[in-house]
Design a protein that fits this description.
With 326 residues, this protein is mainly beta. Among the domains are: 108 residues, Tailspike Protein, Chain, CATH 2.170.14; 45 residues, no CATH class. The chain contains 2 helices and 20 strands. Strands 3-2-5-6 form a 4-stranded antiparallel sheet, with no helix packed on it. Strands 7-20-8 form a 3-stranded antiparallel sheet, with no helix packed on it. Strands 10-9-11 form a 3-stranded mixed sheet, covered by helices on one side.
Length: 326
C-alpha cells in the first residue's frame, strides 16, 4: 500500500528567517536509523521511482512523493547539509494513506517487484531512455556539473548509489573523491559510469556462496572476479608458442644398406619440402658388386606455415544498449 507525509510533501519549507528553503534536501530512511535510503516513488502505484534525497524547488517545496506503508526517518537540511537552519530530524514517522483492509483505492503493487536505482536492463535498440542512463563510460552529475551522459538533479540518487557501491577503479570520480558522496555531489563533481560497451554480463564468482573460481583473477582487467562491476577478457588473442599443441616435429633419419658393387655419392639440394642443413642430403649410386653400408641422418627446420593471426573468441551474439535506472 502507498502513503505519503502531509506537511512535508508538496509543502513549502522555510529557513529560520522565514525564507523559502530553496535547495533543501529531504532524506527518507526506512525505520529509525540512517542506513540505505528508502524507496520513494512519484506515483501512488509505486511504479515510477523518485529521487532520494529529494530536493526543494525555488519556492522551498519538497516534491510530492509516495512510499510503501510503514514508519520512516525524515531528515531535512538546507542545501549545505545543515539541519539547524529550518531543517529537522524526525524518527518513526508513519506514512499516511490507504492501508490494507480499507475501502479506498490504494495500491496493491509489491514495492519489491518494481525497478529501483541501480537496476540494469538491456534493450536491442539504441538511444536514450527516460529515467535511465546508458552504461557507456561517460559521466553523470548535477545540473551544474557538465557531466557528459547526463547532468541533471535526477542523477543524484544514482550518483550516491554508484559512489557507495563501486570504488574509483570501476566508477572514478573526476578530479578525485572528497569527504563523501553527498559532499562530492554538492561540489558538482562528475562520476564515471560503468563502461559496458561491447561487453556481456557474467555473474561474480561467489554471490554469497563459496567462490567457484570459474573466472581466473588473471583474466580480470579491472576489479576482482568476486566484485560487481569488474571487467576483463578480450575478443581475440594471438597464440604464443606455449599455447601450441605439445608435438615433436623432425626431419627424420635414413639408413641405406648397400649390397652391390662400388658406389658414388651425389648431392641433393632438397628432399620434399624439408630444407636440410649443409645444402642437402646424399644419394647412393652403385656400379659393381662391392658390398657396404651407408647411414645418413637428415635434420633441419620444419616450417609450420602459420601467420600469427589472433584467434576469434566471440560466441554467437546480438547487440543492444545497457541502461541503469536513475
Amino acid at each position: 500500500m502507498a502513503g505519503t507525509f502531509p506537511g512535508v510533501c508538496n509543502t513549502q519549507q522555510q529557513d529560520l528567517d522565514g525564507r523559502p528553503l530553496k535547495g533543501g534536501k529531504l532524506s527518507v530512511y526506512a525505520g529509525g536509523v540512517i542506513g540505505d535510503f528508502a524507496e520513494t516513488f512519484q506515483d501512488i502505484n509505486l511504479l515510477i521511482t523518485a529521487q532520494n534525497p529529494l530536493t526543494a524547488d525555488d519556492s522551498g517545496r519538497i516534491p510530492l512523493f509516495y512510499v510503501a506503508d510503514g514508519t520512516y526517518r525524515l531528515i531535512l537540511t538546507d542545501e549545505t547539509g545543515d539541519t539547524s537552519n529550518g531543517g529537522f530530524d524526525l524518527l518513526q514517522v508513519p506514512s499516511i494513506g490507504p492501508s490494507s483492509g480499507g475501502g479506498g483505492g490504494g495500491s496493491t503493487v509489491d514495492p519489491n517487484s518494481t525497478l529501483t536505482t541501480g537496476d540494469v536492463l538491456c534493450r536491442p535498440a539504441g538511444g536514450i531512455k527516460s529515467g535511465w542512463v546508458r552504461l557507456n563510460g561517460l559521466t553523470i552529475g548535477s545540473a551544474n556539473s557538465g557531466a557528459s551522459e547526463r547532468a541533471n538533479s535526477d542523477c543524484e540518487q544514482l550518483f550516491l548509489h554508484c559512489y557507495q557501491n563501486f570504488d574509483d577503479t570501476i566508477c572514478p570520480v573526476v578530479d578525485g573523491r572528497g569527504a563523501n558522496a553527498a559532499a562530492d555531489w554538492a561540489a558538482n563533481k562528475k562520476l564515471t559510469l560503468i563502461d559496458a560497451k561491447g561487453r556481456a554480463f557474467f555473474g561474480v564468482t561467489d554471490m554469497g556462496a563459496p567462490d567457484s573460481a570459474r573466472i581466473a583473477t588473471a583474466y580480470v582487467i579491472t576489479g576482482l572476479p568476486t566484485k560487481g562491476g569488474s571487467s576483463g577478457g578480450d575478443d581475440d588473442v594471438p597464440l604464443g608458442q606455449p599455447n601450441l599443441p605439445n608435438v615433436t616435429l623432425s626431419a627424420g633419419s635414413l639408413t641405406i644398406n648397400i649390397t652391390a658393387g662400388n658406389f658414388t655419392l651425389e648431392k641433393l639440394n632438397y628432399v620434399g619440402n624439408i630444407n636440410l642443413p649443409g645444402g642437402g642430403a646424399t644419394r647412393v649410386v652403385t656400379s659393381d658388386g662391392s658390398t657396404g653400408t651407408l647411414s645418413a641422418t637428415f635434420g633441419g627446420n620444419v616450417p609450420l606455415g602459420g601467420s600469427g593471426t589472433p584467434v576469434n573468441k566471440m560466441p554467437p551474439f546480438f547487440l543492444g544498449t545497457w541502461y541503469m535506472r536513475l
